[in-house]
Design goal:
Largest sheet: 4 strands, mixed
Number of strands: 11
Distance between the termini: 28 Å
Strand content: 5-15%
Strand order of the largest sheet: 2-1-3-10
Shape: globular
Radius of gyration: 21 Å
Structural class: alpha+beta
Helix content: 40-55%
Number of helices: 17
Order of helices and strands: HEHEHEHHEEEEHHHHHEHEEHHEHHHH
């Protein structure tokens, strides 16, 4: 969902050369599997259909294809059409050999019986951040591996905060006070996406989860408190009423234009920010309601899966391909090139040394959760209730306490 919006642009050939150039460095045993040399080609389906991501991913796929001695036939489709296509292919038994899925969709597709468990083909989630393992597992089996992930945190304009004598907020009270102080004619203190889509739900999760709210009980006081934060920011004039219509891209546009001093957003916006060197920005983890809380944000990113195949050799070769994509060196190279974050915890410290601007996101990822971790393939239903409740509250049609009851039909 979210990572479809990645618009990473690379600066120069040095970055390009980083992308997945060492595809078997710590997965060198991949080609020694039972698939042998009988498999000569693999088909791949993903939704990276726009550059620069399309080309970056192609380089990684080509590198692993070379490592494993296969050619690849790749098909890319728009992100919002992928699941429909996958379900059609599953029913007609025409799924590709390697399938990329947004991580919240893995359990839904695994539940159809269309995917092969990776555990059965020599792969495991050992060392991978728990949130991503939760997202890509179903009924105790691992069905996908994601080389990189992303999340959201709080960006701020360093010059604007310094001029106002404001420190980056660590609590909700500090966030509201800072946003109010930073608001002046032509500029809001805070910007976020609260639109009526899964993206609006995604941006609300750091407040909801950090406060102990839970998608298994959306009518709890903790969830209402989180929604009250959004309402307070808008009603005080510290955030625009237009947040109910903004995408994450719109939020970033407001920040770049100097019309917002702080914003909730993800690292896929960094390339656009870097194209505007006059803007001095930094990022902190999402503020806490109470000092003893732990920041919890949602995990983005795509997982690579292996559809079931009667041709066991081809299925194993596809698993080897997924293993190649998830080698240590590939995770680091892909993360650096695309402002994403490696999913293996052992790589995080090195990554922050190499890309200091990703420090807050990397910290946030350590405690981040998968959207499907608790509800599995029922998550989309909860996400719809969340964004509908946000709309009701921000348009004054319901209080934060009542908005979730109304949205869930209560």
């Amino acid at each position: 969902m979210i990572s479809k919006r990645i618009t990473a642009a690379l600066a120069g050939a040095t970055s390009l050369s980083l992308v997945l150039v060492a595809c078997g460095n710590n997965g060198g045993d991949a080609s020694s599997s039972s698939s042998g040399d009988t498999v000569k080609s693999l088909s791949i389906l993903d939704y990276y259909n726009n550059d620069p991501d399309k080309s970056l991913v192609q380089k990684g796929l080509d590198s692993c294809a070379s490592q494993l001695g296969v050619t690849i036939q790749r098909e890319t489709v728009p992100g919002d059409t992928l699941i429909q296509k996958v379900l059609q292919q599953a029913s007609s038994k025409t799924l590709p050999d390697v399938l990329m899925l947004d991580n919240p969709d893995v359990q839904q597709i695994a539940a159809t019986g269309a995917l092969a468990p990776l555990n059965d083909m020599g792969l495991s989630g050992d060392g991978v951040i728990q949130g991503m393992v939760d997202a890509t597992s179903y009924q105790g089996k691992l069905y996908g591996l994601a080389p990189v992930t992303n999340t959201i945190a709080l960006f701020y304009n360093k010059d604007m905060l310094a001029a106002a004598g404001v420190q980056p907020p660590k609590t909700w009270d500090e966030l509201k006070a800072a946003a109010k102080k930073l608001t002046k004619p032509g500029r809001y203190g805070m910007a976020f996406n609260a639109n009526a889509t899964y993206e609006g739900s995604w941006q609300f999760l750091p407040a909801m989860w950090t406060n102990g709210g839970d998608e298994t009980d959306l009518t709890s006081p903790q969830v209402a408190e989180a929604l009250q934060l959004w309402v307070d920011l808008v009603q005080s004039g510290s955030a625009s009423k237009s947040v109910i219509n903004w995408t994450q891209g719109d939020v970033n546009d407001q920040f770049i234009a100097g019309k917002a001093a702080m914003m909730v957003n993800g690292p896929w916006q960094i390339p656009a920010l870097n194209k505007n060197p006059k803007i001095k920005w930094d990022v902190v983890t999402f503020p806490l309601n109470k000092p003893d809380q732990t920041p919890v944000a949602p995990l983005g990113g795509e997982a690579w899966t292996v559809p079931l195949n009667k041709d066991q050799a081809k299925q194993q070769k596809a698993a080897d391909f997924v293993k190649c994509l998830n080698s240590d060196q590939n995770e680091l190279d892909w993360a650096k090139a695309r402002f994403t974050i490696p999913t293996k915890t052992a790589l995080l410290d090195q990554y922050v040394k190499d890309v200091p601007s990703m420090k807050a996101f990397t910290e946030q990822v350590k405690t981040a959760r998968s959207r499907t971790g608790k509800l599995g393939d029922k998550w989309p239903e909860a996400a719809k209730v969340i964004y509908q409740a946000i709309q009701l509250a921000l348009t004054g049609k319901a209080s934060p306490q009542d908005a979730f009851k109304q949205a869930s039909g209560g």
